[in-house]
Amino acid sequence: MTKSWMTASVMMGIIMFVYQMMQPIIQQTIRPFILRSCNRYIQRFLACTNPYIEISIDECTEHHRQNGAYVAIQAYLRPKTSELARSMKAQLCPNKKLILNMADYEEIYDEFEGVKIWWYVGKTFSPRPAAASDFEHRHLKLQFHRQHRELITSSYITHVIREGEAILLQDRRRKLYSNNHTSWNRLVFDHPVKFHHIAMDPVKKKEIIDDLISFSNGKEYYEEIGKAWKRGYLLYGPPGTGKSSMVAAMANLLNYDIYDLELTAVKDNSDLRILMQATSNKSIIVIEDIDCSLNITRKRKDLVGTKDKEVVQEFCNPSRVTLSGLLNVIDGLWSASSGERIIVFTTNHIENIDPALIRKGRMDKHIEMSYCCFEGFKVLAKNYLKLDSHELFGAIENLISENQITPADVAEHLIPKTMNDDPEYCLKNLIQALEKAKENRLLTANPQEETKTEDTSEISEPQELEEKTD
Ligand SMILES: Nc1ncnc2c1ncn2[C@@H]1O[C@H](COP(=O)(O)OP(=O)(O)OP(=O)(O)O)[C@@H](O)[C@H]1O
Ligand SMILES: [Mg+2]
Q: Which PANTHER family match (predicted)?
């Protein structure tokens, strides 16, 4: 009996000794291993019982940059936030628009193809922030039932980001860039003109709008046919017929920036290449008065010695940009970039432009901006006088069909000059000007019948215009 007690005591002593020896190993490896295994089983158990999946989108990337996906999702959620959230954060944008985002820890739901999805704004804190701004880390968490995993990961997230980007594009302030030798200066582009302000044949206007919209929605189509996603427009017509206004209306319709390229400020072809490469997608690159910008007019040699304003300008022009340089840069830009771009040339003298510059494929659509027609007048009367009809419209219709008057001239007569100028007064003003122009035209056609000489109409007559434009 005593012997067995002694053996047991020795055994206990050995066990205690071995345990003491093993303790550090148990603490450092075995215990964490057991805990990790338990944790994994707990996680698995929870995953079996919790059917929801979460996706987290951080506000900033690892390099402390703003995460584009977060910004786009936030924009997508804005309409739902203002409708559903109970706690929101208000922010004033540079365009003076108030936007509402979800406040921290707020949750809202969304629905996609009949599936319910929850969005939640979470926040974590850095124990050792590198900077004060690094202390908080916000994230958006998306939660959905696991049976919709395929739909959410393959379609919903793409849909959210695409929609969010479209909202951001709509909200952003567009830019107007103008160039010096090799760089662009940026201004906010706030021109208010829209297509409904443009006076022109309504059928032609609709055709242009449709063309622009189908271009801007044509990413897949252009990919499919293997063509760079670009389109060229040539706007031609007399001064004051709305060419520059049309470019602004195009930018407003498509939400594009405008690069107003002044070729006379560009030293040579290589500087032109640098400038063109610095333009961004979703933009209109416009070269105004292309025929006077460069030494590229077709009749340059024939015109030497004349007093034509453009010819003088042409020979004073220090730019060494050439026609072939311009063609190479345009074609190079188109073939090097797949982005959405429009290039517009405007001119008063289409006949002076080298056909190579405006051939189809470079300038896909040639749009003539011409004198004001009656439909155009109605647009201007609506814009300036808020008139849809008036008893004087009949007289104006007849007079407009007999005269060539630019929309700029019509606008000038319609615009009230004082607070007391009512719409009828402005219409009478226009009628008077049109009658004077008609009289003038008849006199010029038949000088013998000259009776009055004091006419000083501001309206351009066809003969005068031809003199100016030749
Ligand atoms: N078609 C038009 N529709 C509405 N307004 C027009 C139109 N054409 C001209 N205007 C008015 O006349 C002003 C001058 O027009 P705009 O500068 O667009 O003409 P333009 O064709 O570019 O002339 P230019 O050949 O001299 O550059 C505009 O600000 C606008 O108020
Ligand atoms: Mg213009």
A: BCS1 AAA-TYPE ATPASE
Nearest to 445 by CA among 437, 435, 433: 437
pLDDT in tens, 385-396: 999 999 999 999
Count Cβ atoms within 10 A of the Cβ of residue 344 and give its class: 0-12 exposed, 13-18 middle, 19 or more buried.
buried
| Helices and strands (DSSP H and E) totals, the chain | 19, 13
ipTM greater than 0.85, yes or no? yes
- Nearest C-alpha neighbor of 261 from the set 203, 317, 185: 185
Q: Half-sphere exposure of residue 58, counting CA atoms within 13 Å on the CB side?
A: 12
Residue 336 identity:
A
Q: Is 112 helix (H, G, I), strand (E, B) or coil?
A: strand
| pLDDT > 60? residue 312 | no
Q: Give the pairing type, strands 341-347 and 257-260.
A: unpaired
- pTM check: above 0.80: no
- Please give the distance, rounded to the nearest whole angstrom, from the Cα atom of residue 241 to the centre of ligand 1: 5
Is 245 close to ligand 1, i.e. is its CB under 6 Å away?
Answer: yes
Q: How many CB atoms lie within 10 A of CB 71?
A: 15
Instruction: For residue range 216-269, list pLDDT tens digits in order.
Output: 999 889 889 888 888 999 999 999 999 999 999 999 999 999 999 999 899 888
pLDDT tens across 85-133, in order?
Answer: 999 999 887 767 888 999 999 999 999 999 999 999 998 887 666 665 5
Considering every ligand atom, which ligand is closest to the CA of 238? 1
**Is there an atom of ligand 1 within 6 Å of 407 CB?**
yes
DSSP class of 305:
T
Beta partners for residue 184, in sequence order: 179
| Pick from 61, 79, 62: nearest CA to 70 | 61
